[in-house]
Amino acid sequence: MSSTSTPTESSCTTVSEPCAEPSAKKAKLTTSDFEMPSIVVFVVGNQKKVLQMPRRIARESSDLIDAECKDLSDTAVYIKLYPNIPVEIFTLFLVWLSTGDLNNAEEFASHPANPSAVDLEDTSKKLNQLAQCYHLAEILIARPFQNYITDQICKYLESLVDKDDLLEKTIARNVPLVYVDGQKESKLKCLLEDAIVASTTNLTRCMPIDNPELEPMVLAFWNGVAISAIRRNKELEDGRMRFPLNWGEERRCKYHEHKNDDEIMDCRERRLEKQGRMCIDQ
Ligand SMILES: [Zn+2]
Asked: Where are the domains of the chain?
């Protein structure tokens, strides 16, 4: 059987560095390494679970926390209340803050050992968790977390392509969550709409409206899909609009939130480096 994949040599040659990770810094320790760290206290969920995180780490990842802590003394206790965020989702954020990887979270829905046993319940739950994390990142103005989640969603949706409409149905199940705020623009919506369009050449509405309350959300979703489909012809000519979606855009990060062009350049460089490493490894 012939393969239609395109050569990727050009992207490999851009990387000349070896693929080893940078080694950890070996700085000498001082008193300050043993001082009680300033913390942020989060009171989360309807059960009011009290969680905490070193303030420095939280400030680095969240513009909201950073701004609010700016004028606080180190000894002042900073408390944030999030009664409407499920503890499970907030925990995923804290796990990511401390380890950089959601898969280290017990609560995070993992793939079943047997890939053919994946069903719509599993996939919907996983996308649901990721979308809730995305919304939390928006609330906290935590761009690194948001972009990490975006990448996870891209990767996950890609793994569902060609699996009996599982991708379309999984997205359809999560439309009420993602489109709850109707017309508000979001890169997550754009990503889901593009994923639908990129995964199929035969667009059919996979979601009947059986609940009048959901109607505006479903319509907003299909409206977005229709606009994405119109754009597709042009994008395909430029070699974009196909999986993996987040690498498709040449000059900008279509689905990422970045503060300025410098951040976009950094992100692109990191991505090319990673792609190059993958090429070398193969
Ligand atoms: Zn980016």
From this structure: 37-84, 97-281
Q: Tokens at residue 20, please?
A: 């080893």
Are the C-beta atoms of residues 12 and 276 closer than 8 Å to each other? yes
Tens digit of each residue's pLDDT (9 = 90 or more) over 58-113: 999 999 999 999 988 888 889 999 999 999 999 999 999 999 998 888 888 776 66
Please state, in angstroms and rounded to a whole number, the distance separating the CA atoms of residues 135 and 68. Answer: 20
Burial 113-141 (b: 16+ CB within 10 A, else e): eeeeebeeebbbebbbbbbbbbbbbbebb
What's the CA-to-centroid distance between 256 and ligand 1, angstroms?
A: 5
Say if pTM beats, i.e. exceeds, 0.85: no
Centroid of ligand 1 to alpha carbon of 132 (angstroms): 20
Among residues 199, 174, 196, which one has the least CA distance to residue 123? Answer: 174
